[in-house]
TrEMBL record:
CDD domains: AAA. The keyword Lipoprotein does not apply. This is Regulatory protein, Fis family. Keywords: ATP-binding, DNA-binding, Nucleotide-binding, Transcription, Transcription regulation.
Amino acid sequence: MSVELQNIKNRFGIIGNFPALNRALEKSIQVAPTDISVLVIGESGVGKEFIPKIIHAESKRKHQPYIVVNCGAIPEGTIDSELFGHEKGAFTGATATRKGYFEVADGGTIFLDEVGELPLQTQVRLLRVLESGEFMKVGSSQVQKTNVRIVAATNVNMMKAIHDGRFREDLFYRLNTVQIDMPALRERKGDIHLLFRKFAIDFAEKYRMPELELEPNAVHYIENYAFPGNIRQLRNLVEQMTVVERNRKLTAEKLAEYIPMETHLPMVVNTPNSQKQNDFGSEREIMYKILFDMRNDINDLKSLTSELIKNRGTADLSNQEKNLINRIYTPENQQAVAPNNSMLFFEDKNPAVQTPTIISNSDDHYEDFEDIEIEDDKPESLSLQNNEKDLIIKALEKHKGRRNKAADELGISQRTLYRKIKQYNLEE
Ligand SMILES: Nc1ncnc2c1ncn2[C@@H]1O[C@H](COP(=O)(O)OP(=O)(O)O)[C@@H](O)[C@H]1O
Ligand SMILES: [Mg+2]
């Protein structure tokens, strides 16, 4: 490892030696001195926020402002004004002219977190300022100039967002001049224990308690856990156990009370084993995440198939392909959780290597294949909607109606949560 990389890790308190993590950090150091836009991609809780900090600190802009904007947390109605400012009288309540972040950060860096959540009208303004450095305050027709470096981050599948018309393709390519991928914690098995020890030390100090330690079977246990909430989840787990656990030597059995191993199996909803109830709050948390992840996976698969069929038609599909697609859309499978009546089972129990297998109860269906219609925004099946609604209600109850906390727990942005609350009429 280069000295420079080690220095960065020390300075920012970054733990881990996994090659993909090192690559991400090295890439950040390399692009820092340029003004190139960077898009950081990775699941929630993987440490994406380190990247813009490193880039800013290692650039010639380091003495200028660094501004973090959480695009998912600002209401749609005010985001343009927050980013670009407004004129006095531009809208009700605009009693004075206000500078936006792009004006304030002139010469510096803006980190656009959860950039996939930006409303379309804001995307237009953002594209313009990225391409020409020009913007206008809301309610003004005077063009202003600014010189801002953008680092953006997302945990959503941008290709899907583009395909669904929620994100502009031109803006995506403009933001994504350089892409930095942050690996999920479950891919970095060797780093899990290191991170555990670092958090154990931090929290022991914070709460003036002896440090937690892991018995060998516990090390094995966390190294094989999927950590849907990644490092943030591990950190919260260690904090919670530091305060609660009397015995400072943790066994696998003890860990299983907090993070039950079986709950991260992808098809957990269908396995008899998982239907037994237990009262661990964390199990519920993980279930939410799994359901959301599963739904995303299914949607991705759905758009992929629909894209393939659209582009290629059905004529040159091999029999095997026809058979496969046909099976997804057989009526027998309509009770499934997935949109478009597809039902997917995962063969492998380890989510890191999950391969979807499409199961059908009948064999030959290609005759009705020509009748298949694929719509892009078909309403999700009822069972999925009910599940989702249920999970949202539970998360809101748990956090006493605090939407930011509930969104965090559900692993979705606040804006998505607001939308869902509206959609399901949960406002009261
Ligand atoms: N490699 C790491 N070493 C130490 N702490 C980390 C590491 N990666 C993430 N964290 C911590 O995990 C938490 C989540 O990181 P964050 O950057 O907010 O995730 P993201 O923005 O990807 O959701 C933060 O408290 C962060 O400090
Ligand atoms: Mg973040």
